[in-house]
Amino acid sequence: MPFRRRRVWVPLIVLAVLLAIAGALYLRQQEAPEAARLLPESDAIVYFNLKPIRLATNFGDKTVMHEPEYEEFVRQTGFQFERDLDEAAVAVHPAEALPGSPSSPRERRFSEIFVGRFDSTKLTHYLHQLATSVERYRDTDVFLIPHEGRSVRVAILSVDTVAASNTADPSTSRA
């Protein structure tokens, strides 16, 4: 009699484990992409997945004339957005007044997550050249780069992920 009970319980346990794994995979597939999940709270999020576009077309294969500033970026980092960027997620933050003038027009701010293939050594060197200072947050360098009258915070999060934000509040760039 105990042998028959074991015959029933073993397949039931295996079936329960398989159902749990299938359920976890299904739920994982239904959630937002990781790039979008890394973004801070915002009014809206825009997500782009460029991998299917690159596979379906020759997007990024053509030689295109670039502006000199972008060409210098490509030369120093080896990274071309049209060839190496796989995903991008952009958070649209509430409009902020410019610092020091509360009556000035309010401007929207953005935070971005970029996923792609890049050389982190070259990119780090390039960011050091642009940055006025570098902050340290949880073992990550956050480069403060002046751009159009405000600071843009840029951080290399992993071997394939970079975050950037132009909000006045530094906490929006801390995940």
What report would you give on this structure?
It is a single chain. The chain has 175 residues and is an alpha+beta fold. It has six helices and seven strands, in the order ααβαααββαββββ. It has a seven-stranded antiparallel sheet.
Q: What are the defining features of this structure?
A:
single chain; 175 residues; 7 strands
Share of residues in strands: 25-35%
Instruction: Please count the helical segments.
Output: 6
Sheet bearing the most strands, described?
7 strands, antiparallel
Shape: extended
Radius of gyration: 23 Å
With strands numbered from the N-terminus, the spatial order across the biggest sheet is: 1-2-3-7-6-5-4
Overall pLDDT score: 82
Give the gist of this structure.
This protein has 175 residues and is of the alpha+beta class. It is 37% helix and 33% strand. It is extended, with a radius of gyration of 23 Å.
